[in-house]
């Protein structure tokens, strides 16, 4: 009996037991830290995709606003941004490349794509559309379990979210490293 084929647009790498996504093949591990609000002040792991966007900078960008994309799926022209902003964009409806390019055109410094509708801790490998196109901003994937909490705060919480991205562990004291969110698997 053959295994079911995976949709070519959503290529996931699995470990030996075929149930848990393997982090080895799904982008470069990076971290960002939510500075405020306090209830979300944790370190979040994301996976970058240099096939979709530019490499992340080596030095962290601090105190950058994290906003929810308008429209949320990022498939059409987005509202222009007036500051340095990290955009949270929902997965689905169009290619990762289009989402990243729309975020860049709106003025975003970084794009984080998530699947908050699914709300799982699965990792998705963001692959190109085969046309060798890239965005000029860094792009990363955040599992939906954290994406959902961040999205809910952005839609209903009121307080602005500010982040440090990417988080550079080599320049921090161990006691200063914020912990991962309690709802994420370790």
Describe this protein with a few key phrases:
single chain; alpha/beta; Glucose Oxidase, domain 1; seven-stranded mixed β-barrel; 7 strands
Describe the structure concisely for a colleague.
With 186 residues, the protein is α/β, with parallel strands linked by helices. The chain is 13% helix and 23% strand. Keywords: Glycoprotein, Signal.
Q: What would your notes on this structure say?
A:
With 186 residues, this protein is α/β, with parallel strands linked by helices. It has a single domain (33-169), classed as Glucose Oxidase, domain 1, CATH 3.50.30.30. The chain is 13% helix and 23% strand. It is built from two helices and seven strands; from the N terminus they run ββββαββαβ. It has helices at 96-106, 144-156; strands at 28-36, 43-48, 61-68, 85-90, 110-114, 139-142, 161-165. It has a seven-stranded mixed β-barrel with strand order 1-2-6-5-4-3-7. The termini are far apart. The model is unreliable at 1-25 (pLDDT under 50).
* Count of structural domains: 1
User: What is the CATH architecture assignment?
Assistant: 3-Layer(bba) Sandwich
The quaternary structure here is single chain
Give the overall silhouette.
Answer: globular
Largest sheet: 7 strands, mixed, barrel
DSSP E strands, number = 7
- Individual helix count: 2
Structural class: alpha/beta
List the uncertain runs. Answer: 1-25
- Tell me the strand order in the biggest sheet: 1-2-6-5-4-3-7
What string gives the helices and strands in order?
EEEEHEEHE
Strand content: 15-25%
> Could you name the CATH topology?
Glucose Oxidase, domain 1
CATH level-1 class: Alpha Beta
What integer value in Å does the Rg equal?
A: 16 Å
Distance between the ends = 34 Å
Helix content: 10-25%
Average residue pLDDT: 80
